Amino acid sequence: MKTLIKLTLSILLTGLMAAQIFAAAGETENVREITVKGTDNMKFDVTLIEAEPGEKLRVTLVVESNLPKAAMGHNIAIVDQGVNMDDFVFASMTAKDNEYIAPAFQDQVIAFTKMIGGGETDTIEFTVPDTPGEYEYVCTFPGHYFGGMKGILRVTNPA
Ligand SMILES: [Cu+2]
After folding, report:
1. Looking at domain 31-155, which of 3.40.50.2000, 2.60.40.420, 3.30.1330.10, 3.40.50.2300 is its CATH number?
2. Which residue, 5, 29, 48, 122, shows the most beta carbons closer than 10 Å to its own?
3. Which residues surround ligand 1, an ion (CB under 5 A)?
């Protein structure tokens, strides 16, 4: 019986130590936080994000709207270079069951939030691509990209 208690205690302690180590790792990890708002005028309030190759970003999308999500939903999809954005957005319009991300293009999407409505938020964490250049991010809710709901992730090497 005593052995069992000892064993249980040591397992508990090991678990605690592991938890502390993980917590410490989380604190030291360098993740830059960015909040982007989507509003009823079909725009993002942040249209340029500048970052360095390999940087870790945590982007939170906040939607401000009193309209139902079915009428005014927003997401953020950050897309790889070289993708025809019109094709991607057009294909994604009908991909409601996949968060409005066309499955055929999904491997060319660096990161994407859920499609959310007024009062909701969603956060994505991703590593900025190693290749410098401009990466477009868009809202794939039907019509929003064509209404101007887009921005640029500009990746440049540190000076
Ligand atoms: Cu939108």
Report:
1. 2.60.40.420
2. 122
3. 74, 139, 141, 144, 149
